[in-house]
Amino acid sequence: MDLWTSASSLPFMTLFFCLFALAIAFAFEFINGFHDTANAVTTVIYTKSLPATPAVIYSGFLNFLGVMVGGTSVAFSIVNLLPVDLLIDNTSGRALVMVLSLLIGGIIWNLGTWFIGLPVSTSHTLIGSILGVGIVNSLMSGNGLSALNWGQVITVMMALVISPLLGFVLAGIGLLAMKLVIRDQRLYEPPVDENPPPFWIRGLLIITCGGVSFAHGSNDGQKGMGLILLVLIGFMPVYYAMDIHDHQKAKTCREAVVNVKQIMAQSNITDTMLIKQADQVLTNLEGKISLEEVPSDKRWEVRREIYSLVVALRKLQKTMPEIKHLLHPQTDVIKSSIEFVPLWVVIGVALSLGVGTTIGYKRIVITVAEKIGKSHLTFGQGAVAETITAATILGAVFFHMPVSTTHVLSSGIAGTMAANKSGVQFETCRKILLAWVFTLPASIALSGLLFVVGCMVV
Fold first, then answer.
1. Model pLDDT for residues 392-434, shown as the tens digit of each residue
2. Number of domains comprising the chain
3. Model-level pTM greater than 0.90?
4. What is the DSSP string of 241-255?
5. Cβ pair 236, 7 in contact under 8 A
6. Which terminus of the chain is more solvent-facing, meaning fewer CB atoms within 10 Å of its CB: N or C?
7. Whether residue 114 sits in one domain with residue 38
8. Per-residue pLDDT tens over the stretch 299-354
9. Of 352, 375, 57, nearest to 206 (Cα)?
């Protein structure tokens, strides 16, 4: 069953809401472009390294490139926040309302904070929106809070909390180290008049701006992919339950499961539950080469069994690290059968984020450059803050964690201001901190409220 067949088989109103939800999801990523990526162009604009128009076009292109080559691991850290089984009953109005509520709630909060020029985290907003509908749905279903993947929630939140602290500390240390190594005083003083920085400093600032833009695309672009996958899984689970596009995927998945059983046998592992899970997957894939051969009405059940096996194998790797190097490659092969992002989604997100970068950036740029420190941003502060930000975000991508470009860079600039004794505008920092604290509960409440109202309507 191809995408067109799957989509055309939906009832008209369900198809309409699916397309509407996809449009809002891409709009969310477009807003992310001008909301978050303004941070990346702040330093090159305010240090006169590049005029605004070339800066945002350059940043937009590197955002696009970051999405295209950044992978998909972060996307599924977003998808797995919400047990996707909650979305599968697409005949239920509640499932449709759930998707639309988390999308609209996130957009309302992002646009509202952008309008007042307040840098907030799109990551916090997205995660809060997902949690809001998940919590309310769980409570309305009489399941308490048990329906959410709290282990994944805690892991993601730790990354969001720790990364700004790292940005502040490392940027401050980085600027002090730069002062010891490079003694050119022009690096540490506000720009004079409209003069651009020296050639080599200008080149460094342009490179660091590109690094932040690329890193932002590679991390935040994947959050957009995760958001769109939630929509697609909710509306077309038969098509997106597993990777039916790779015509050898059932065969390679089955071979990996066989290899896992052999590794367990050689290591004298007799976990009966794990062996049973592996055998169930082998039975379901028996004689199949492509996952498309799995009957449509069985695909979600098979997906659930494969996912449960992957979770069990991850736990085994934690308890027996001595065989992790053997199990990890096989687990990745098994996981790839159910965790995939279609190319059109990657390209769509890349375009949305890249084009969004070139629009509406000025409000956030002014806040970051003029209102965090008491003096104008210096060349050295811009270079160090962006270098630390890019490195932090790329490190998070490596560890499959979503982080906030906004908060890492804002805290990095504050760290350089403190280290340079430039002074910090505590009122602005207080507002950014309050936004950091309240974005999560506000987006939870907003999407949850929209979900309740939507359920009353439908």
1. 888 887 777 777 777 787 788 788 887 877 655 566 566 666 7
2. 2
3. no
4. SS--SSTTHHHHHHH
5. yes
6. C
7. yes
8. 888 988 898 899 899 889 988 888 889 999 999 999 999 888 888 888 998 888 88
9. 57
